[in-house]
Design brief:
The chain has eleven helices and eight strands. With about 260 residues, the protein is an alpha/beta fold. The chain has a single domain (about 10-255), classed as Aldolase class I (TIM Barrel). Strand 1 (about 10-15), helix 1 and strand 2 form a beta-alpha-beta unit. Bound molecules: 1,3-dihydroxyacetonephosphate.
Length: about 260
């Protein structure tokens, strides 16, 4: 169960899907179905090109908007990149360190720490992805990898920043595979990360951080995760279907 005062967070990562009109239509559908509730906050993260339209569509709605990535420099000759200064006002949250960025675009732990720093400077809340590959999983390294990625990401983070930080434990092998992690195993890794953060910042401060689970989450398996000490979900594929995503939000609400 999430601690008191800490809302559950459900984030839909739309990845490289949907044209601007398609993203806007999905946002309109979700806006009708997801209303303000006390225990849960819902976020959708469209591609950069759809951010403006989706954030206009969702203004004054119960759904917040997130970006999927950011570059850490403020401005300058970085063709193709988008800075935290540009995201301010459009995105309340921003995903960083997703395994797809680490694997396909060579993003390092150092990059992730710089991105977290840049986002905090512009009052955007980072959602930091951590999690092991299949090989690391088979080698029994799930906790070691998650904790070491968390440690690196927190390099420039102070105690005061913690309430704005969310981690998402996303085992790489569970992403898009239809094979979600067992809720017990996810809780185990999440507890190890919590323990590490407590050692670093103290119990009270560490309690403010939210840690989500991501990897093949759907409306059905969400129930099992919600029985565990998990603060919400980072949803990929299932977030592109408005009925399925709404169902995940409702399931989370029932158990919060
Ligand atoms: P899936 O839910 O499609 O497995 O993707 C998870 C993910 O990578 C969210 O960031």
């Amino acid at each position: 169960m999430a601690k008191e005062g800490k809302k559950k967070l459900i984030v839909g990562n739309w990845k490289m899907n949907l044209t601007v009109p398609e993203a806007t239509i999905l946002a309109e559908r979700l806006k009708k179905e997801i209303v303000f509730v006390d225990g849960v906050e819902t976020v959708v993260a469209p591609s950069f090109v759809s951010l403006y339209s989706v954030s206009e569509t969702l203004a004054d709605s119960a759904i917040s908007v997130g970006a999927q990535d950011v570059f850490y420099e403020e401005n300058g000759s970085y063709t193709g990149e988008v800075s935290a200064a540009m995201l301010r006002g459009l995105a309340k949250y921003c995903i960083v360190g997703h395994s797809e960025r680490r694997i396909y675009f060579g993003e390092s732990d150092r990059d992730v720490s710089q991105k977290v720093k840049a986002l905090l400077t512009y009052d955007i809340k980072p959602i930091i992805c951590i999690g092991e590959t299949l090989r690391e999983h088979s080698d029994g390294l799930s906790k070691v990898v998650a904790v070491s990625e968390a440690e690196a990401a927190l390099r420039f983070v102070t105690k005061e920043d913690l309430e704005n930080i969310t981690f998402a434990y996303e085992p790489v092998w569970a992403i898009g595979s239809g094979k979600a992690c067992h809720p017990d195993d996810a809780e185990n890794v999440i507890q190890a990360v919590q323990k590490f953060i407590k050692a670093l910042f103290g119990d009270k401060a560490a309690d403010k951080i939210r840690i989500l689970y991501g990897g093949s989450v759907n409306a059905e398996n969400a129930k099992g995760f919600m029985k565990k000490n998990i603060d919400g979900f980072l949803v990929g594929g299932a977030s592109l279907d408005h009925e399925e995503f709404t169902e995940i939000v409702k399931t989370t609400l029932k158990s919060s």
